[in-house]
Design a protein that fits this description.
It contains 15 helices and 11 strands. By secondary structure, it is an alpha/beta fold. Strands 9-1-10-11 form a 4-stranded mixed sheet, with helices on one face. The chain has a 4-stranded parallel sheet with strand order 2-3-4-5. Strands 6-7-8 form a 3-stranded parallel sheet. The structure holds ligand V47.
């Protein structure tokens, strides 16, 4: 690794099979530094919103989705969404709007196009990080447009980047078990490939801690690394730990991932993804104390202020949903690192 050699599949497997957690942390931290990383840790001031939880896909890991007929189903119009976001803007500043939704079969492409137009008009300075690759693909099935046509149209109306969800685990065996209604992984990659070629940066994720094997985790990381070699448009990687509550897996007696597995996942991400500059310790998922440790296991970003979060909290997350800027600053300092507030594209806004 110090010689700059790329880790291969067997190396990845050996890392996941290792019990020496502290050595892995040290190795991942070293890899981060060897590739130019410093003591800086990034965060962004952002707001999470979900415009609809209505979803056709029925992924077994998801506790957020609803069918149109369920009493808790909701779909906000573009006007309602803008009104809500503007109200929130009076309470807290944010430079990024992060939006992920269900794949509602009851809307059309105009719904998405008009939403981006309205958000951009209302908040011209806010970066719109909206719609996973799965949602972009859903828009093509609703409209008959291609991925490129959908992305161009949304970009021209103000879309800034795509969040990294929908990746889950790329191995077909796993997808068939946990998300049989979801698009094929090749489609997920085609959306990101197209976005990168259109100058739209994106994020990427893995959802781990359910039915996947270590081999399938490593395969997932290698596929992302190969995509990044081709187009270079991934800004960051975020490992997402599976939360079982209110899913069928809870009824099967499944538990949350352990802290050790979360740290291992971050370390292997840093070690294998040598071409993705930023690895996020997602505090919503792991809580602040473990996220502080994660900063010594290869992570260099703690996502952001968030404010409201539904997907993980529907599935049993007990973490807060908001961290104030001062809290994030304090937290990064306590971990022995330098807090840097960034915009979505990792430009430095303020150093604390
Ligand atoms: O694809 C759903 C995950 C994703 C559960 O780009 C779950 O910065 C754990 O896109 N337990 C959607 N995970 C959210 C998403 C996202 C999240 C955080 C950061 C970013 C980013 C993007 O949420 C889904 C799925 O992988 N998810 N249900 C669950 N029960």
């Amino acid at each position: 690794m110090e010689a700059g050699e790329r880790m291969d599949f067997e190396d990845g497997l050996a890392i996941l099979e290792s019990d020496d957690l502290l050595a892995l942390g040290e190795l991942a931290d070293l890899a981060r530094r060897v590739r130019g990383g410093t003591d800086e840790v990034y965060f962004v001031q952002n707001l999470y919103v979900n415009q609809t939880n209505v979803c056709r896909v029925k992924c077994k890991f998801c506790a957020f989705a609803a069918t149109q007929r369920q009493p808790h189903a909701y779909t906000f119009t573009a006007e309602e969404l803008v009104e809500d976001v503007l109200r929130q803007r009076e309470v807290t500043g944010f430079t990024e709007l992060h939006m992920v939704n269900g794949e509602s079969p009851h809307v059309d492409f105009a719904f998405y196009r008009d939403t981006i137009t309205a958000l951009h008009e209302a908040l011209p300075d806010v970066h719109l990080k909206c719609y996973t690759a799965s949602e972009i693909h859903h828009m093509t099935t609703l409209s008959g447009l291609t991925h490129e046509e959908v992305l161009r149209e949304l970009r021209d109306r103000g879309l800034g980047s795509l969040p990294g969800g929908g990746a889950e685990v790329f191995a077909e065996r796993v997808r068939r078990l946990v998300a049989p209604g979801k698009e094929h992984p090749d489609i997920w990659f085609h959306v990101h490939d197209t976005a990168h070629r259109l100058g739209i940066p994106t994020h990427c994720t893995i959802l781990y801690g359910h039915v996947e094997t270590y081999e399938e985790r490593v395969d997932h990381l290698i596929r992302l690394r190969e995509q990044q070699d081709r187009t270079g448009g991934f800004l960051a990687f975020i490992p997402l730990a599976f939360h079982p509550e209110n899913t069928v897996f809870e009824r099967r007696g499944w538990r949350h991932t352990t802290g050790a597995d979360d740290l291992k996942m971050l370390a292997i991400s840093r070690l294998m993804l040598d071409n993705i500059p930023n690895i996020k310790a997602y505090w919503i998922m792991m809580g602040m104390p473990l996220a502080a440790v994660a900063l010594h296991f290869g992570a260099n970003d703690v996502q952001g202020t968030v404010v409201r979060e539904e997907i993980f909290h529907a599935a049993g997350a007990r973490t807060e949903t908001e961290q104030k800027v001062e809290e994030l600053v304090h937290f990064v300092r306590e971990a022995g690192r330098i807090p840097v507030q960034r915009d979505t594209l990792y430009n430095e806004l303020r150093r604390w």
